[in-house]
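QA checklist item 7 of 12: single-chain prediction sanity check.
[x] sequence parsed
[x] length recorded as 300
[x] structure emitted
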Amino acid sequence: MHLFLPALIVLVSLATMPAHAGQPIDLELMLAVDASGSVDDGEFELQMRGLSEAFRDPAVHAAIRDSGDDGVAVALMQWSDGVRQEMSVDWALLRDSESAIAFADRIAATGRQIPGGGTGIYGAVNFSIHAMDRNGFDGRRRVIDISGDGRSDLIVPTVAARDRAVAKGISVNGLAILNDYPTLDRYYRRNVIGGIGAFVMTATDYQAFTAAIIAKLIREITGAPVATSPSSIELAAGGFATALEFEPDANIRSKVATQPTPDQIDIAYNTDFFINSLKASGKSVGSDSHTQNVAASSAD
């Protein structure tokens, strides 16, 4: 029995060690792509093409270079219902344009691995947490990037998965595709996103996905500073990309961001009200054929 105890202590110690301890890097980023039944093959291809184009974009390359000297580890997974997830493009460390383009090539060569199923956002989040904990990297920031066009089949495990990620220091961001549910961004805000600097961006449909994911990746890679109120509305490729950032509570600043109040949600997503308020205050709203940017600070 006495000989057995030291071995038992070693095993317990190994089991309780942080599974994600590894090579220090600036960011771990998991791209979680919706492959559920609501996404047809053409729509899925638009997601993958958009991601491939994003990692070829010079602005994304600049964001990677500016993120820090240690690089950005990125992987891509596909998800549908709560038990169907596949790692499609395994972890790669990106530091420059060459490594980003190589990652884009791997995305372009990847086909659909899940031919439909339900919508289990919670499964995608849990899968991503597990993958991050065992990827051999130790990122100063860790982010799960969920894109999808529908609500999760089950609400309780979705919130629980989000909270589990946040408790582990992982931020969950969302890209809500609004072709089927025009208010899907509100669902994402209430139930999906969380963590330091968490935000939702939107694309009106899959045709707007590329522009939205480029903007989202730049924001995630550079680690945009958090604010206490809605700061911008961007109109990209015909679809609004909105974001509301949150200032963490001082007591849990290092781990968990506070969630928005219902008033913040309503202000952030009532676009007409927001833009009209800016005009009434004398602020200009510029636009061209592709983009419209509104930069302003709103009253508490």
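[x] summary fact logged: The chain is about 40% helix and 25% strand.
[ ] second reviewer sign-off
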